[in-house]
């Protein structure tokens, strides 16, 4: 990995850490600030929010309501670069009041380097992981098991 690619991967990790910290503080404006002006956020419930401002506003309402005091856990599984200013990041995570027993959600982020040089989230899609369904599929159709991939490439 080149020094530039390593620096970009570190900046992307920092971006996701900033979004996690904003969530943990219940700071919708800071959370929305991690997204591009025209970002798309597809939530676990299937709601589609557009733009960092709307994402921040909606999440502030959530942070003030049923997500009050929640914590976000995010672990990066993979960062794949596509050119010099775009990357796809696959994560596992969970949001809740306590420490999660397992990370039951998968999120796929598209992140971009904007004109100011900062990486921001352009799109995120969140999905619940169905471990039992995976296990059944892998048992009866072994070819459905994904190959192991490196974390950054």
Looking at the structure, the CATH topology is Nuclear Transport Factor 2, Chain: A
> Mind telling me the C-alpha Rg?
16 Å
Secondary-structure element pattern, one letter each: HHEEHEEEEH
Shape: globular
| CA distance, first residue to last residue | 8 Å
The CATH C-level class name: Alpha Beta
Helix content: 25-40%
Tell me what the CATH architecture is.
Roll
**Number of folding domains?**
1
Average pLDDT figure: 90
Would you kindly provide a brief summary of this structure?
With 153 residues, the protein is of the alpha+beta class. The protein has one domain (3-144): Nuclear Transport Factor 2, Chain: A, CATH 3.10.450. The chain has helices at residues 3-25, 28-32, 52-64, 131-140; strands at residues 35-42, 48-50, 71-81, 86-96, 105-113, 119-128.
Account of the 3D structure:
The chain has 153 residues and is α+β, with helices and mostly antiparallel strands. The chain has four helices and six strands, in the order ααββαββββα. A six-stranded mixed beta sheet has the order 2-1-6-5-4-3, with helices on one face. A hairpin with a 5-residue loop joins β5 (105-113) and β6. The protein starts with a helix and ends in a 13-residue tail after the last helix. The model has no long low-confidence stretch (mean pLDDT 90).
What keyword list fits this structure?
alpha+beta, 4 helices, Nuclear Transport Factor 2, Chain: A, six-stranded mixed β-sheet, single chain, 153 residues
Give me the secondary-structure topology:
Layout: H1 3-25, H2 28-32, E1 35-42, E2 48-50, H3 52-64, E3 71-81, E4 86-96, E5 105-113, E6 119-128, H4 131-140
């Amino acid at each position: 990995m080149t020094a530039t690619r390593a620096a970009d991967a570190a900046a992307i990790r920092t971006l996701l850490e900033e979004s996690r910290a904003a969530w943990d503080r219940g700071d919708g404006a800071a959370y929305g600030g991690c997204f591009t002006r025209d970002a798309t956020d597809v939530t676990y419930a299937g709601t589609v929010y557009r733009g960092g401002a709307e994402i921040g506003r909606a999440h502030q309402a959530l942070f003030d309501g049923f997500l009050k005091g929640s914590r976000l856990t995010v672990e990066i599984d993979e960062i794949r670069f596509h050119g010099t200013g775009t990357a796809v990041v696959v994560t596992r995570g969970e949001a809740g009041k306590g420490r999660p027993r397992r990370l039951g959600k998968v999120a796929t982020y598209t992140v971009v380097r904007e004109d100011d040089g900062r990486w921001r989230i352009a799109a995120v899609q969140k999905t619940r992981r169905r471990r039992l369904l995976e296990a059944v599929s892998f048992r009866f159709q072994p070819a459905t098991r994904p190959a192991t991939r490196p974390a950054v490439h």
